Amino acid sequence: MVKGYSLKRMEMLLNENNLYIISKSYLTGPFSIFLINLDRICNFFFLRAFMFPFIFLANFLDTLFFKNNENNLTLALVAEKID
Question: Domain count of the chain?
């Protein structure tokens, strides 16, 4: 995907290219966003090693509580070509 595209824009681009959306979901909820922002603020290599176990926890919590939150940063689409 291209950074900054909305779901509607991606749907339009896929339709123009004869691609049918099979599934769509949102990723990277508030817990993961918090870790991303912390990494951007601190930007220390050793902090990444410390945060590594929390990445799995944040992803789990995001999928548990915020699976299809439209405010999430990442959009996941699965599409197939229409003949």
Answer: 1
- pLDDT tens string 40-77: 787 766 677 777 788 878 878 877 777 666 666 677 78
User: What's the pLDDT tens digit per position in 10-47?
Assistant: 889 889 999 988 988 766 777 887 887 887 787 766 67
Per the rule left: phi > 0, alpha: psi between -120 and 50, beta: everything else, 23 is beta
Q: Which domain holds residue 39?
A: 7-81
By the 10 Å C-beta count (0-12 exposed, 13-18 middle, 19+ buried), 2 is classed as: exposed
The pTM of the full predicted model, rounded to 2 decimals, is 0.50
| Domain-embedded: residue 73 | yes
Residue 60, strand partner residues: none
In the chain, the amino acid numbered 42 is C
